[in-house]
Structures
1.
Amino acid sequence: MRCPYCGSLDTQVKDSRPAEDSTAIRRRRVCPDCGGRFTTFERVQLRELTVMKRSGKREPFNRDKLARSVMVALRKRAVDAERVERMISGVVRQLEQTGEADVTSEQIGELVMEGLRQLDSVAFVRFASVYRNFREASDFEAFVGELAGYKPELAGTAEDADDARDSAGQAKSDDFKR
Ligand SMILES: [Zn+2]
C-alpha cells in the first residue's frame, strides 16, 4: 500500500482489527520513510457495480468517492466514525442488492440522503440542498466542491471556508489509501 504522504511503497501494518460489526478489517499503517500514519479498510465486495451518469458516461463504482461526499457533509459534526462507515457500507450493500450491475448517480444520491437523514440532520440538510441542485449535473468533483463550500444562511466565516478547503484536500489524499 503506497504511502499517501510521500509515495513510498514500503508501508507497514501496525495493527489490524475487525471493524463495522466485523464486516471490515481496519489496518493502521505506518510509513518507515516519512513516519506518516494512515488507516485502510478491507471489505467484502459482493458485486462489481458500474455507475451510469446522466451524461451517459459509465464508470466503475467507487466507494471512496461516495465516502468523500458523506465526510464533507458531516464536516465538524460529532458523529461516531463507526456509524458513518456502517452507513456507507449500508448504502453500498443496498446498491449491490438492486440486482443490477448498473446503478445511477441518482440512486446513489438518494440512498446517501436517506442514510444521512438517520445519522445527522445538519449533514442531511447540507447534502440534500446541494444534491438537489446537482441532479442535472454529472460532475462529482464539482458536487463535492459545492458541498464543501455550503453555508447554512449566515454562518459563513472565513474560517469555515478554510476548513472546507482543508477537508476537501483531506478527502483527496484519502484517494491514495487504496
Ligand atoms: Zn511516507
Note: The radius of gyration is 17 Å.
2.
Amino acid sequence: MKVTMWTPVFCLFVWFWLPLLGKAAPKPEWIELSYQFNNGTIYWPTSLAFKHIRLSENFTGAGFYYSAYDISAAEHGGTHIDSPRHFAANKWTTDQIPLDRLIGPAIKIDMSSKAAQNRDYQVLPSDLEAWEEKNGKIPDDIILLLFFDWGKRWPDKLTYLGTDTNDTSLLHFPGIHPNASRWLVKNRKIKLIGVDTASIDYGQSTLYESHQILYERNIPGLENVAHMDKLPIKGFTLYAAPMFITGGSGGPCRIFARLDKEDCTVNAAIRLRSVNIFLVTTVFMFLIFL
Ligand SMILES: *[C@@H]1O[C@H](CO)[C@@H](O)[C@H](O)[C@H]1NC(C)=O
Ligand SMILES: *[C@@H]1O[C@H](CO)[C@@H](O)[C@H](O)[C@H]1NC(C)=O
Ligand SMILES: *[C@@H]1O[C@H](CO)[C@@H](O)[C@H](O)[C@H]1NC(C)=O
Ligand SMILES: *[C@@H]1O[C@H](CO)[C@@H](O)[C@H](O)[C@H]1NC(C)=O
Ligand SMILES: [Zn+2]
C-alpha cells in the first residue's frame, strides 16, 4: 500500500470511529412490577394475610449461620394471579395456565385521570376505543394492563382499598366495567389482563362480572401489579411467574417487564456502526487500489 495524501485522513477517520465500532448495545432495561411480601402486604379484607415465621436466624452451635422461615398466606393477596378457575368452574387452574399466556408483548391503558376524579370509576368500551384511536388497534395475543395510578397509595389500606376494616361493603377502588370485558372478549384477542388495584372489578362490585366474563374465556388476571407508572404505553415485554400451585385458583406472582430496545439512542448507535463499517471499507479499498 502506497503512502498517499489520503493516509493521514484514513488514520484520523479510523481513530475517530474506532471506539464506536466496539461499543456494545446498551443493556435492556428491566422493570419490577411486584410488591414484596411482608407484614404490610395488602390482602382482601376477609383473607389470610402473609405470615413469615422465623424458625432460625442465627449462628448455630456448630459455628455456621442458618436462617429459615415458614410462610403462609391466601392465594389472592399482594401481587398475584387470578387463574381462570377462580370464577369459572372448568377453566385453567394455576398449574394449567400455559407459559406462553404469561409472557409476551404488553400494552398499558392509562386510566389515571378518570380514576383520580372518581375512585369508583369503571373502564368502559369507549375508553378502550379512545386508546385505539391514538395508539392503533389492540393487537392480538397481547397482555393488557390497566393503569389507574393506584400504586402510589400502596401499602396504605385505607387509601388503596377504601377501608382498613374487614367490611367489604366499604371497598372503593376503580376497575373494569363488565361492558368493557364483554367488548374485549367479543372484539379483541387479549391473552392476559392486569390492574394496579386489588381486583379487576371495582371495589363496589358484588357480582364480580369482569372476573366471570374474562375467566370464562380462560383469560387470567393480574392484580396489585406494582410500579405501572414506570411503564410506557407500549413497547415492552411482560413476564408473570406465578407460584406453581396444583389445582390453585391463583397464587403469589412475580411480575416484571423488559423495555423493547426500540429507543432512538440504540437505533442511532446501530445505524452509525453500519455506516462506519461501510465507510471504513470504502476508504480502505480506495487506498489499496490507488
Ligand atoms: C412482622 O410482625 C411481627 C409481629 O408483629 C414482628 O415480630 C416482625 O418483626 C414483623 N416483620 C417485619 C418484616 O416487619
Ligand atoms: C444469636 O446467638 C447469640 C450467641 O449464640 C445470642 O447471644 C443471641 O441472643 C442470638 N440471637 C437471637 C436473635 O437469637
Ligand atoms: C378482621 O377479621 C379477623 C378475623 O376474622 C380479625 O382477627 C381482625 O382483627 C379483623 N380486623 C379488623 C381490622 O377488623
Ligand atoms: C352497558 O351496556 C348496556 C347494554 O349495551 C347498556 O345498556 C349500558 O348503558 C352500558 N353501561 C354503561 C355504564 O355504559
Ligand atoms: Zn385475585
Note: Residues 165-166 surround 2-acetamido-2-deoxy-beta-D-glucopyranose (ligand 3) (CB under 6 Å).
